[in-house]
Predict the 3D structure of the following.
Amino acid sequence: MTVATPTSTNALEAPVRRVLLVEDEPTLRRVIARNLASRGLEVREAGTAQEAVEAATTAHPDLLLLDINLPDQTGWDVLRELRRRSSEVPTIILSAVRVSSNRLDEFHPIAYLPKPFPIDALLRLVFQPEGASAPITDDDA
């Protein structure tokens, strides 16, 4: 079973320092944020699409970790709005629902990580995006 599916060859060009984490489930958001912050990253959190767009356009993150099912709009709406504002950010999609290849082709995220996922799989994608050219499997987690 694939845990992370790289979807783009667009690796991050510089080390990640600022991450915008968009997740409406507070417990999962806290766990991910703490893991990233404990590794020296500046983590900004958002629980809605509106908060995500505002944070992305003001904080200028190096990486967007984006849930698709948000309470006010979808993560796809966030990406569309950022594109409209010329504020596109390298993105890793985190989703409990299956993501269609059409959506992945439309938005070209760095990777798609289906929930639930091992935190180590996410950390590898964040800290070693150049290694995202091969799928991460359960055997790797």
Summary: Helices lie at 26-37, 49-59, 75-84, 101-107, 119-127.
